[in-house]
Amino acid sequence: MSLFKRSAVSEILSHSGVVLSTLLIVWLSVLLVRLLGEAANGTIGPDVVLGLAAFSSITALPIILAVSLFIAVLTTVTRSFRESEMVVWFASGLSLKNWITPVLQCAVPVAILIAVLTLQASPWAYRQIAEYRQRFEQRSDLSKVTAGQFIESDDGARVFYADSPEKEGDELGNVIARVIDPQWLSIVTAQSARMEEQPNGDRFLVLSEGHRYDLKPGQAEFRMVDFESYGMRLESRDAGNTAETIRARAEQQIKARQTTLLFSDDNPESRSQIMWRLALPLAALNLALLAIPLGAVNPRMGRSGNILVAGLVGLLYMNLINLSRGWIRNEQLGFEIGLWLVHAIFLLIMVFMMWRKLRIKAPKPPAS
Question: Where are the transmembrane segments (predicted)?
Fold first, then answer.
């Protein structure tokens, strides 16, 4: 490998690592804020926040990798032109097309990794996300309780509140609950509480060292019971709540469906999903090559002009892929055409831009 190729590959990989780590940090920061907000609102459990963040990062990695590669190639080529480094290489007999080989040496492995992620890892991650959320949604409202929150269940028939635990081994402390049934209005207090799951799968909230006060509305009937342990049923195991059923429902989501199943399922929605999964690695290759002519700028021009144009080109590329995906789903465009159309257009744009950059104008004859 020549000195030029070695230096180009090294710089592209270095820039890719910096951009990738930056984008991942930004992505994870935004994602964690959203997930923590959902956990605070009771939409998901606090115990699954990190798991959901990890699986969501897997689903976002293909786009992040493609964008990182595009920015890395663009900044590398732009820097070499701005610092007049390319003048030296041009004087050594090289041209802009000599960038293609080192760019492909970086882009092809990244595209293969993106293909593995989109075809295998991302559907698996989507299934895990769906299973996490379905398990939480199928739990009773009381089983979602966390310290310091009021929880309602059975359309307000049960209201529950608990403080943080004071004793080691307890999950909740200083519990108070209001229960309304057709005959009685009950108030239950306890010093602590914990969750228990029976061998048959039934889940109970077990209250310790408390009191129960029952009042019959409209009558003077009242009763009080002291208890050392009191169990409140949270949920029962049924056929729709098993791990196999939850997994089967998760796999029904189109994003979570295995790629092999999508190929065997001849419907527009499945075809559009196949198109999306195949489009990302192809887009990564195209964008990396397109960054070469986009980065070849005149050093005397502004510093941000080509970056802005490149950003608009990348956004246009991804939007056209999404548009083609929608057309395939709505049967407005054939799968075979929609799969290649956008990539072919941008490949032709790249070839045209390279031709414009490589074209050498003949000098004008001297005036006689």
Answer: 12-36, 48-78, 274-295, 307-325, 337-355
User: Rounded to two decimals, what is the model's pTM?
Assistant: 0.73
For the four alpha carbons of 316, 322, 327 and 330, in that order, the dihedral sign comes to: negative
H runs (alpha helix) in the chain = 3-40, 49-82, 85-91, 100-116, 122-138, 243-251, 259-264, 268-295, 305-329, 335-358
Query: Around 111, how many Cα atoms within 13 Å sit in the side-chain half-sphere?
Result: 19
How many other CB atoms are there within 10 angstroms of residue 118's CB atom?
A: 21
Q: What is the mean pLDDT of residues 217-226?
A: 83
* Other CB atoms within 10 Å distance of the CB of residue 17: 12
List alpha helices for 179-255, DSSP H: 243-251
Are 337 and 324 in contact by the 8 Å Cβ rule? The answer is no
Nearest one of 181, 240, 184, 231 to 204, comparing CA atoms: 231
Widest Cα–Cα separation across the chain: 121
Q: What DSSP assignment string belongs to 7-64?
A: HHHHHHHHHHHHHHHHHHHHHHHHHHHHHHHHHHTTSS-GGGHHHHHHHHHHHHHHHH
> pLDDT tens digits, residue range 314-328?
899 999 999 999 999
**Chain Cα centroid distance, residue 340:** 25
118: left (phi over 0), alpha (psi -120 to 50) or beta: alpha
Structural contact between residues 102 and 5, judged by C-beta atoms closer than 8 angstroms: yes
* Helices 268-295, 49-82: crossing angle, 10 deg rounding: 30
The residue type at 181: D
